Amino acid sequence: MTISLVSICNMSLSQLGATEISDLGTNGRNAKLCNMFIEPTIDEILRLHPWNCAYCRKTLAELSEAPDFGYGHKYALPANPYCLRALRINEDWRYKFRVEGRELLTDEATSVNLEYIKRIVNPSEFDSLVVTVIVSRLAWRLAYPVTQSTQIRESALSEFRVALSEARAADAQEGTAEEFTTSSWLDSRLL
Predict the structure, then answer these.
(1) Cβ–Cβ < 8 Å for 139, 15
(2) pLDDT under 70 in the chain at which residues?
(3) Which of 103, 109, 141, 171 is deepest in the core (most CB within 10 A)?
(4) DSSP string computed for 30-71
(5) Which tens digit of pLDDT belongs to each residue from 50-82?
(6) Which residues contact residue 8 at a Cβ distance below 8 angstroms, ignoring those fewer than 6 apart?
(7) pTM for the full predicted model
(8) What 3-state class would DSSP assign to 188?
């Protein structure tokens, strides 16, 4: 099955026992609700976890204008692919940075290697478990407007929590575990 925004919406509507849609641009109530919620829901899910399917790396060039205070350097966040969540810079969790608007502030000079979560615009790029999480979150969002039932909405929330937990666990197991380094002070304290 090819994954599309419409198929994601239809899976969510099916979970609710609601009428499926053929197009997000149609005038039907379910299509309008799906159209309103689908993209914010996808962005929300992508921001919740560093999903492997949305992980991206980019070297940023420094902007000419420095921050007024607090940090020494400013970099523009990537626009293509669009940065939804900055994770770390220069391959080290210890480097300090802050995201303000569409800029990254840090004391690191010259260039910054940013690891981030990108916005995915082509649903076929989603991992199947991420699709399940998006479907369940969208079902939760649509539950009350479509069914007028708080019980169905609560059930959809429970399904979302299970799907998110399972997807995070599977996603975290792909790849080599990060090595954590300690300081010589901490090493001496452990002996």
Answers:
(1) yes
(2) 1, 177-191
(3) 141
(4) HHHHHHHHHHHHHHHHHHHS--GGGEEEEEEEBPSSPPSSS-
(5) 999 999 999 998 999 999 999 999 999 999 999
(6) 38, 123, 131, 134, 135, 138
(7) 0.88
(8) helix
